[in-house]
C-alpha cells in the first residue's frame, strides 16, 4: 500500500534555499515539492496532511560523531543505541554515524560485527558506522579496502590515549596511504597524547587533581601541534583528512592554512566548544567533572575563532561527539584524580536547538545552520542526497521546527540516558515539533511515536568533497 503524507505551508529550509513550499512524502521518500498556493501544490493529495504554517520544514539532522555504548575508562557510555537514537530523534536528528571499535590484537571486521550486534534492531533512526583503527598492520590495511567496498568509508585514528587507541606517526602514515588508494577518509583525534601524559603525571604529582586540570594539561598548543602533524602526514600520503572535535583557535589556524594551500583537509567542531568553556570545568564540588571531554573545553576567547571558522568554511561540520557518562557512579570514578574521569559529554538531543539559537544570536544564517548540521555531514560521509536535504528522491527525513517556541534545557526534561545536562538551565528559542524518519512519524506534536528497530543500517559512499 502506498502511503502519502503532505506537509503544507511551512518554510522549507535547505543548505541552498529557503522557500514556502508544500512537501509530499510517499513510501519513505520525498516525492515532490511545490511552492505553497500554486496549482502544482494544490494538486497534491495525501492520506495525511500536516499544517506547518509558521514553522520551518528542515531536513533531519545528521550527527556524524556519536559514541553509543562506548567502553571507556572501565565503564560504558550510558546511552544505548536504543536510548541514544530516541533522544536524537527528540532533538531533530534522524541519522547518526557511530564508531565501531577495533581492539588491539583484533581485526576490523570483529569490531564492526560487534557494533552491528549492539545496534541492530535497537535504533529509532537510521545509522551508519565509522571504524576506529587501533592496530595498524598488514591485515588491518587489507580490511580497510573491504570495509570501503561495503560502505564503511571512514576510519578514525588517535594521536591521543597511549596504550588504548593511540597510533604513532608511522601507523598513521600507513593508514593514510591506504585511504589515498581506496577512497576512504581518515578522521583524526588530534592531540599529542605522549606529551599530554607527561603533563598529567606532573600535575598529579603536584597534587593538582581537580577536574579543571584536565583542561590545563591538554594544552591548546598540543592540539595545534597534532593538527599540524596530521595535516603534513596526510599531505605526504596524498590523502584527505577530517579533524574531529576542533576546540582551539590555534588548531583552526592550522586547518585554515592547509585549506588555503588547496589541501583536502576538513574540520569539525561541537556545541560544547561553542557554548561551554573552562569556567564549567572549574565549577566547585567536583561539578566540573560533568564537562570533562577530549579535546577539552577551552577558555571563552576560543569561541570566536570557532564561530568564524564555521562562517568562513574553515570548519565544515558541527557534530556532538555524544559520549555520555552519568555524574553519579561514572564521572565520580575520577574523584581525587582527574585523569580517571570518563571523557565525554551528552549532547545528541541538543545540537539542532543550540545551532538554531546561534542563528538568532547572529553567528550563523538559517541556511548555514542546515548546511553544517545536515547537508555537509551527509556529503562528507557519503550519505547525500539520500540524507541531509529535502529534494525529490531523498529519504523523507523531515523535521517540522517551531522557531518561536521557548524552552529551558534540563536533565529533568531531556531524553538522553544521563543524570545531568551539560546545558542545565540554558534558555533557547526554537524547538522540534514533529519528526519523520523515512516518512514515518517518530515524534508527533512533541509526543514520541517511534520505536526501536525502525532505524536501519545505512551503507555509505565515499566523501563527496574530494578533488
Ends distance: 43 Å
Work out the radius of gyration: 21 Å
**Poorly predicted spans:** none
Largest sheet: 9 strands, mixed
Taken from the alpha-carbon principal axes, the silhouette is globular
Mean pLDDT: 97
How many beta strands in the DSSP annotation? 19
Proportion of beta-strand residues: 15-25%
The helix tally amounts to 14
Supply the helix-strand structural class. alpha/beta
Helix content: 25-40%
Summarize the structure.
With 467 residues, this protein is of the alpha/beta class.
Write the layout of secondary structure elements.
Elements: E1 4-13, E2 18-26, E3 29-35, H1 39-42, E4 48-51, E5 56-59, E6 61-66, E7 71-72, E8 75-76, H2 81-90, E9 93-101, H3 108-119, E10 126-132, H4 138-149, E11 154-158, H5 169-182, E12 185-189, H6 193-205, H7 212-217, H8 220-237, E13 241-243, H9 249-260, E14 265-269, H10 271-275, H11 278-281, H12 303-312, E15 317-318, H13 351-360, H14 366-380, E16 398-408, E17 427-437, E18 440-444, E19 447-448
Parallel strand pairs: 1-4, 1-5, 6-9, 9-10, 10-11, 11-12, 12-13, 13-14, 14-15
Antiparallel strand pairs: 1-2, 2-3, 5-16, 7-8, 16-17, 17-18, 18-19
What does this structure look like?
- This protein has helices at 39-42, 81-90, 108-119, 138-149, 169-182, 193-205, 212-217, 220-237, 249-260, 271-275, 278-281, 303-312, 351-360, 366-380, and strands at residues 4-13, 18-26, 29-35, 48-51, 56-59, 61-66, 71-72, 75-76, 93-101, 126-132, 154-158, 185-189, 241-243, 265-269, 317-318, 398-408, 427-437, 440-444, 447-448.
- By secondary structure, the chain is of the alpha/beta class.
- The strands form three sheets. Strands 1, 2, 3, 4, 5, 16, 17, 18 and 19 form a nine-stranded mixed β-sheet that branches.
- Strand 7 (71-72) and strand 8 form a beta hairpin.
- It is globular.
Amino acid at each position: 500500500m502506498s502511503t502519502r503524507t503532505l506537509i503544507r505551508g511551512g518554510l522549507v529550509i535547505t543548505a541552498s534555499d529557503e522557500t514556502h513550499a508544500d512537501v509530499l512524502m510517499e513510501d519513505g521518500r520525498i516525492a515532490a515539492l511545490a511552492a505553497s498556493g500554486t496549482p502544482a501544490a494544490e494538486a497534491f493529495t495525501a492520506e495525511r496532511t500536516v499544517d506547518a504554517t509558521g514553522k520551518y520544514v528542515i531536513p533531519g539532522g545528521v550527527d556524524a560523531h556519536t559514541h553509543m555504548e562506548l567502553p571507556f575508562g572501565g565503564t560504558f557510555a550510558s546511552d544505548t543505541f536504543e536510548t541514544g537514537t530516541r533522544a536524537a530523534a527528540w532533538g531533530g536528528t534522524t541519522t547518526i554515524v557511530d564508531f565501531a571499535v577495533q581492539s588491539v590484537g583484533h581485526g576490523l571486521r570483529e569490531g564492526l560485527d560487534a557494533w552491528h550486534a549492539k545496534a541492530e534492531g535497537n535504533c529509532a533512526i537510521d545509522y551508519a558506522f565509522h571504524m576506529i583503527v587501533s592496530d595498524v598492520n598488514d591485515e588491518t590495511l587489507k580490511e580497510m579496502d573491504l570495509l570501503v567496498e561495503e560502505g564503511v568509508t571512514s576510519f578514525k585514528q588517535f594521536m591521543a590515549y597511549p596504550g588504548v587507541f593511540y597510533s604513532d606517526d608511522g601507523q598513521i602514515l600507513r593508514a593514510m596511504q591506504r585511504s589515498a588508494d581506496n577512497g576512504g577518509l581518515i578522521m583524526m583525534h588530534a592531540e599529542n597524547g605522549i606529551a599530554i601524559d607527561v603533563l598529567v603525571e606532573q600535575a598529579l604529582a603536584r597534587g593538582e587533581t581537580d577536574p579543571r586540570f584536565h583542561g590545563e594539561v591538554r594544552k591548546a598548543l598540543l592540539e595545534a601541534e597534532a593538527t599540524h602533524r596530521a595535516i603534513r602526514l596526510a599531505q605526504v600520503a596524498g590523502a584527505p583528512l577530517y579533524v574531529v572535535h576542533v576546540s582551539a583557535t590555534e588548531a583552526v589556524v592550522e586547518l585554515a592554512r592547509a585549506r588555503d594551500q588547496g589541501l583536502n583537509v576538513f574540520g569539525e567542531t561541537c556545541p560544547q566548544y561553542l557554548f561551554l568553556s573552562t569556567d564549567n570545568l572549574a565549577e566547585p564540588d567536583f561539578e566540573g567533572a560533568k564537562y570533562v571531554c577530549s579535546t577539552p573545553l577551552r577558555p571563552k576567547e576560543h569561541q570566536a575563532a570557532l564561530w568564524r571558522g564555521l562562517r568562513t568554511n574553515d570548519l565544515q561540520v558541527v557534530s556532538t561527539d555524544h559520549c555520555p557518562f552519568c555524574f553519579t557512579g561514572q564521572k565520580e570514578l575520577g574523584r581525587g584524580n582527574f585523569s580517571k574521569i570518563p571523557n565525554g559529554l551528552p549532547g545528541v538531543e541538543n545540537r539542532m536547538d543550540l545551532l538554531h539559537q546561534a542563528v538568532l544570536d547572529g553567528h550563523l544564517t538559517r541556511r548555514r545552520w542546515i548546511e553544517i548540521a545536515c547537508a555537509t555531514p551527509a556529503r562528507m560521509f557519503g550519505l547525500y542526497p539520500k540524507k541531509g536535504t529535502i529534494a525529490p528522491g531523498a529519504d523523507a527525513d523531515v523535521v517540522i521546527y517551531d522557531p518561536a517556541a521557548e524552552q529551558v534545557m534540563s536533565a529533568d526534561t531531556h531524553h538522553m540516558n544521563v543524570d545531568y545536562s551539560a546545558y542545565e538551565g540554558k534558555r533557547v528559542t526554537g524547538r522540534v515539533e514533529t519528526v519523520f524518519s523515512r516518512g514515518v512519524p517518530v515524534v508527533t506534536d512533541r509526543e514520541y511515536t517511534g520505536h526501536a528497530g525502525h532505524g536501519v543500517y545505512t551503507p555509505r559512499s565515499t566523501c563527496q568533497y574530494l578533488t
